[in-house]
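hey so i finally got around to running the thing on that chain from the lab meeting. sorry it took forever, my laptop kept dying and i had to restart like 3 times. anyway pasting the input first so we r on the same page abt which one it is
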Amino acid sequence: MNKKKSGLGPIELEVIHGTIRAAELEIEAAVERTARSPMIRDQHDYRVALFDAKGRKLTGRSYSAIVEPIFEYFGSEDISEGDVFFWNDPYNSCGGIGHVPDLCTTIPIFYEGKLIGFSQVFGHHDDVGGSVPGSLPVNATDSWMEGILIPPIKLYEKGKLNEAAFKIITRNSRLSEHLAGDMDAEIGAAKLGSRRIVSLAKRYGIKILENAFDEILTNTAEIFRKEIFPKIEDGVFLYEDFIENDGVEKNKLHGIRVKMTKTPEKIILDFSGTDKEASGPINWAIDEMEGKYFRKWLAPVLRSLAETPERAAEIDCNEGVLDIIEVKFPEKGSLISPNHGKPTGMRFFLMLRSLGIFAACLSKATKGKMPADHETIRIWGLTGGDTQSDFYLFREVLGGGGPGRPWADGSDVVHIVPNSRNLPAEFSETKYPIFVEKLGLETDSGGCGFRRGGLGYDKRIRSLQDCRLISNADRSVLNCYGVNGGKSSKSYKISVVDKQNKEKIYPGMCDSVFVKKDELVKIVTTGGGGWGDPLNREPEKVLYDLECGLISEKSAKINYGVCLFSKDNKWHLDDKKTQRLREKLKKKQGRIKMFHRGDNFKRIETSYNVVRPKSWEDKDNQWFANE
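ok and heres what got predicted. didnt touch it at all, straight out
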């Protein structure tokens, strides 16, 4: 593009790009300050985005849905100023909405009568109907069990509210006031984003603004090709991982597999080896529109190869990434290309597995220079009440330990949903009949490594009345893998301790467990996988971790080869014993494999009778750590 001729110089481009980024943050702030439900207002389980008139995503900090359903259902001729488009149907969202509780609000942006873009907010809402409170039934066998299904509609048409539709939607929620308040908040926030784009059009004119949009997307693709791609070896790399339970079929692992082909210009991800669709709610319908949403979801993994973490934070993952990532889907009827109506409530299991297998392929192609695995989202809660007037739903999106990385230990108790968090104890105890007895870090939960994995939660909640337990979690049997010599993490665990102090452990997927008054619920979330050989970790860091309660004395010795002694109520290093022990352990361990899935993986794989496609060539055992 001739920038002088177009009137777009580097200063104008930077101002426009910066304004769009700032507008994204403003939309997020507006949602948080005006939403009604704890899930959105306090836990921040929502996403926002700005698009151009072609539906191309301009923002890159926050993943979002897509606007293609508007074009598919209404066409460009039936988009008017004052319209508010609304939908949540996973099978009528062009792959942009993964499960039923995510309601999507999109507003077209007009300037001087011309469509110049879209502003969008979607959030995970407390309840949208279905067979269980929270709308995520673990044993659902179709989408209709999961809540109200809304195809793309005009909630507002030319500024006029469709009151009948609004009433129907909110009436189908057990928490109607929360839902109505959230919808109003999301619409208001999206309108704020619209005003920011209009202000840019007023300042620069439509033509320059559209040229800037093109340049922003082109720059994104070029940044990845110039800064990231040279660090990835050209070739073909494979990896697979599993979801351990679909809530319906017992003792069955569900595999997602990818073959990554890297060229100087593009990465092609072929998922055709992925298992067939599940009976239960772990499917993810993302095979529409050439996987536009899916490709943008995967792209941020590449930022881990940026020169510095600071540089990684500067790289947007907007529509420009579609130029560098191509996806090939299995035939209809797989976990990621399910037939219409298959349940999708726990699709976030597949979201995380897809990131993990992509990162593993990149580890093979970069000699282990990618972060390890993580499981930084699951949902748990308690629900009770005898009537609609005293009904309550205490529910949290709980994070876990972040992955160990070449440049740093994993972060503790982080959430993959940007800026998300657990509910504060003070708020929870005030609003719900519970008592928070403990909120801390689970010692030894992070995978051991030269850079250890982050730690998961250790949370204990006492119920003050009879209620029902909800757990929507994976990785309660399998572990988050360690990479480049790092070890796997601890897995998820949820249990109930009765009044006689007897503890009973429940599956990660359950929603029909009844908890009696004064019983204690214990939740331990996964740590992140470790990176690098733990025997190479600086002894001073191991000592510090022990002093902080992040690891145990046993782990320090067995996994890190560090000998310590206690004197004057302080831990001290024994350098000579440490050196001798590490030399002994290194001789014993021999050559280290690139990936560590946990000591029980082979046993679980065999007992669950994993069947792979005939064409699948699993060569993980041939990959070793880059020592």
